[in-house]
Amino acid sequence: MFHIRKYRIKYRKEAEELLILLQEHLVQVDGEQVQRMMPDYPDRYLDLVLTRVEKNSGIFLIALDDDAVIGLAAGIMEEKDDVDRLTNRCPIRGKMIELIVRPEWRGHGAGSALFRAMESFFTAQRCEFITIDVFAPNSGALRFYEKRGYRPRNIEIYKRIGNLPQQAIPGAILSGDREEDRTEEVRTAMSFREQMMP
User: Fold this and answer.
1) pLDDT in tens, 73-96
2) Quick one: fold of 2-147?
3) What is the domain partition of the chain in residue ranges?
């Protein structure tokens, strides 16, 4: 039987392994080849998550089988900016930023238990809503959330308008690398600004 606990430093290595598993999965399902895992990801990403959680009054939870980490979840209180304050009533919202369960433990309730614990935390913070950013190709995660009553609100759409970045090609010159490209970009920007002025 598993238990849900707050993250502690003694579980760092296992938490890092889980986050690596998640990023590897996202890289694998990304047909556009935008997702990647840089060499310093294993050493840095967990610290970035922990910093976000601390800075934004959040929580980092782990699911344990005996003393082995089988899953994790992290959430933060959503920040508001000037655009938010000008365009909406700024309800208190929690944001789930990470959720992963070891493959061999999926379907045994660990993900649901982490999810309920996160929802309880946000309820205690008097949140009106919980938000989750879902990578569209991660269809299993999307189904998991939809089964629990989550539905789309803001949808990012995109269209590829160019080839894969040329920096992957040794010796390629990118637009903006040459002086004449930069000069043309400045002229274009100035012309646009002049058109927009009354």
Assistant:
1) 999 999 988 998 899 988 999 999
2) Aminopeptidase (3.40.630)
3) 2-147, 166-196
